[in-house]
Amino acid sequence: MSIESRYVDLHPTSRRLAERARSTFPDGVTHDLRHNAPFPLYVDRAVGSRKTDVDGNALIDYVMGHGALLLGHNHPSIVSAVAEQLPRGTHLGASHELEIAWGELVRQLVPSAERVRFTSSGTEATMMAVRLARNYTERERIIRLREHFHGWNDSVSGQPGSEGTVPVSPGLPEGVLDASVVIPQNDVDALERTVEEYGDSLAAMILEPTGAHWGEEPISIDYVKAAREITARRGIVLIFDEVIAGFRVSPGGAQQAYGIMPDMSTLAKIVAGGLPGGCVAGRADILDQISIGMAVSRNVAGADRISHPGTFNANPLSAAAGAACLREIADGRPQTTAAATAETLARGLNQILRSESIEGCVYGYSSMLHIALGTNDVPADGYSWHGERPSRPIVQTEGDLAHKFHLAMLNEGVHLMGSGMMVSSVHDEADVAHTLDGFRNALTSLAAEGAFRG
Ligand SMILES: Cc1ncc(COP(=O)(O)O)c(C=O)c1O
Q: Among residues 237, 224, 209, 233, which one has the least CA distance to residue 129?
């Protein structure tokens, strides 16, 4: 039976729900990542490292709330913090004590966080960070790195094409595209040239500190260091987008792991313990542009501060979940456990690729893994390029192969995040064993369909 036929056979209820959703949502889905031909998977419930889909199939979950669930699903401390808050109110329409505790934890953990401002998502956090940087420097242009993802707000959505920066989606004004310069990561010369060429118009540089797409394209720490030095020299605000890396790579995120201080950081996902939420954190003189009493410069519209409303900023449920989560991860133990499990997984998966004589490589950093089928470029230590750049760009699993691989792993009861894995602190030995068996079987199914020929 083909991989797709097996998927169809295993998921009749998902298929029915997908048909029902189609007339309500574009393509029947509510997030770009959930597109999945022939129809998306519908999940019913989750606990720990596992989920159960609407057809009763058990899944080991490596999506883990798109990276939000470092502690796994429904961690007891988070569940009880939210349960305690729920009857006390889901929106208090006023300041509340929980938000202070939550913000203090961010300040305590993230080295560069002198001030914090909560948002409802990572996209809102990067939008705010860019605006703060533009007003602070009274300049407009942002340096971004090719393929680095910062959410879907206009300012960070263009990518370079043969004729300059082009939208990754239609609907972006030309002026917004002109306000970005997008250069390749790991190329210090390109950064120096860009700074020379655009110097006085550059407000900020924003980057994913573990490399494009949470390290799918690993970044060299020397490059990040150089970016820090060059931007500091030219008065350009350096923003680490730690929406994924924050609290995962270490309690203080990549900046703590690398010992490099950005001017601002954007955080989301883990910061809110699995509920919606994010924040901008960073230098007081930059964030205080939000303050009514302490605006540091005038923006072009003539107002004297950056306004920041937002109905669900620091909502009490997210504050309860976020504070509980940050307390749990503050000592670094969950991060170490998750990273150790990820390394075991990567080594086991690579071993299977070698024993099956299939070209491919599983690599990653901390508790984030990427599976590249059809490439031979393996890190020297067999697992991580951390801090180094690969000798050449890694060939990613794409197109039909990526799609079939994802389906084949679902058929084996393993839910990947695309072709990657977000490993939590509660994935255990049984999960690892099941994942390795599932991977071997998925490769066999793919081989039977001629996926690795020629
Ligand atoms: C590095 C990075 N920045 C920003 C975002 C956007 O965050 P959100 O999905 O909460 O809007 C994401 C989302 O995956 C991300 O990975």
A: 237
Instruction: Count how many residues are written for the chain.
Output: 454
The residues of the chain scoring below 70 in pLDDT are 162-163, 293-303, 376, 378, 380-396, 454
* Domains detected in the chain: 3-73+333-448 (3.90.1150.10), 76-329 (3.40.640.10)
Tell which atom from ligand 1 comes closest to the C-alpha of 148. Answer: 1
Find out whether 265 and 281 touch, Cβ atoms under 8 Å: yes
pLDDT for the residue numbered 391: 59
DSSP-assigned states of every residue in 170-222: S---HHHHHTEEEE-TT-HHHHHHHHHHHGGGEEEEEE-TTEHHHHTEE-BHH
CB 434 within 8 A of CB 414: yes
pLDDT at 167: 76
DSSP letter assigned to residue 242? -
* 303 token code pair: 């107002």
* Residue with CA closest to ligand 1 atom 8: 122
**pLDDT for residue 272:** 98
Ligand 1 interacting residues, C-beta cut-off 6 A: 66, 121-123, 126, 149-151, 208, 241, 243-244, 268, 278
pTM for the model stands at 0.95
Q: In which order are the strands placed within the sheet that holds 237-241?
A: 115-119, 278-282, 264-268, 237-241, 202-207, 141-145, 180-183
Q: Return the pLDDT at 386.
A: 63
Residue 327's CB is within 10 A of a number of other CB atoms, namely 15
pLDDT at residue 345, rounded to an integer: 97
Phi/psi of residue 206, nearest 5 degrees: -120, 140
Which residue's C-alpha comes closest to atom 2 of ligand 1?
150
Residue owning tokens 């560069």: 112
| Nearest C-alpha neighbor of 349 from the set 412, 443, 417 | 443
